[in-house]
Specification:
By secondary structure, the protein is an alpha/beta fold. Helix content is about 35%, strand content about 35%. The chain has a single domain, classed as 2-Layer Sandwich (Transcription Regulator spoIIAA). The protein has a six-stranded mixed sheet, covered by helices on one side. The longest helix is centred in the middle third of the chain and has 18 residues.
Length: about 120
């Protein structure tokens, strides 16, 4: 599936599925964001940022309900992405993380991301 310049990623233990609904981008994560996913995720989030800026979307939704593990290197990719989005000034878009309430690590980790840029980041569980 393709959403303009963003393609799906399907690896044995990690996948990313983009969609474009009601004028906003969304990306569904599943599997495990471990060392094998690190470089893919960093590049992918840069692409998401570029597409969001090009399209002028108001929000990017990141659905993590089926992401069972994320290591610190992948977490850093989210920090970098949020910093890029936050520094976009008047063109900044919101980032909404949708968490799985049964995965406690998500609540703690996503709260840290929200605190990084609470003017653009929200967390829903």
């Amino acid at each position: 599936m393709s959403v303009l310049g963003i393609e799906s990623v399907n690896k044995p233990s990690f996948s990313l599925t983009p969609s474009f609904v009601d004028g906003n981008l969304a990306v569904k994560f599943s599997g495990n964001a471990d060392m094998a996913a690190m470089s893919t995720l960093a590049v992918y989030l840069r692409s998401v940022h570029s597409e969001a800026m090009q399209l002028g979307v108001g929000e990017v939704t990141v659905d993590l309900t089926e992401l069972y593990f994320m290591n610190s290197s992948c977490f850093k990719s989210f920090v970098t992405w949020i910093e890029s989005a936050s520094s976009a000034g008047s063109s900044a878009y919101r980032i909404k993380f949708v968490a799985n309430p049964k995965l406690h690590w998500q609540r703690r980790s996503l709260e840290a991301l929200r605190c990084l840029a609470d003017h653009i980041v929200t967390v829903q569980s």
